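your task:
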Amino acid sequence: MSTYQIAALGRGSTRLGRLRGLIRGRCVLIVAGSVVAVTVLTAVFAPLIAPYDPNAVDPTAVYQPSSSAHWLGTDDAGRDILSRLLYGARSSLLAPALVTLTAGLVGTALAVSAAWLGGWYDRLVSALLDIVFGFPGLILAVVVAAMFGAGLTVAVVTLSVAYLPFIGRVVRSAALRERQLPYVSALRMLGVSGRRICLRHLTPNLLPLVLVQIATSYGYALLDVAAFSFIGLGVQPPTAEWGLMVANGSTGILAGRPEQSLYAGVVIVVFVIACNLLGGSLSQRLLGDNR
């Protein structure tokens, strides 16, 4: 075989590998995006889909197995598990969305302003982000809950603060690199104000990175919100929420009825995995991450 044929064969295998990677990445994006989209639609249309009132207690139907009347069975209060899962998607998805959006907006504003202004302000913002990054969010939630009481608002506010470094630190590093690009120097030479450069040029160019960070952080935020509800600091009974359902079903596990905790836990795990895969696929497509 000639050198030319060997080189051509190598190029062909490289192209085939790239094609397989592209197809695989697209399939992951489609599957993960479909899981997220279906879950969101389920939460939106829960009142139309759920067969029962999620809080309707039926003492005569306690721990009923799966049947045509109750597809996933009932819990220790005779409530339909499927209905509670569908309604629970609302608070389970809304709280992480508020957390990641708040952390994304505030973190991006702090990061861009710190990278642009520099000096003592940059050092102050970096120090604050490092302090928050090293402080466990769960401990912060316990302190805040002790001061203001438990509830969904406490969980959202606490986690929004805890997630600031996850977005702010990454965006700040990217903003520092972006500030050194020639187009920024050209805009400054033309007399464009720093505020306009940051709002009209710097921040939009960083938007793909921010979106990837939000998508990646969303799954972890959902886990944290579920953990808050599990230990009693988040959503309070009888509201349907996935983390709270896992906690409420723990007594049923000892009685040989793990359905409530099992189904809620499976839903959480599947959705978090889908969010992580979606974030990875968006990273490859928006940021050109070919690792």
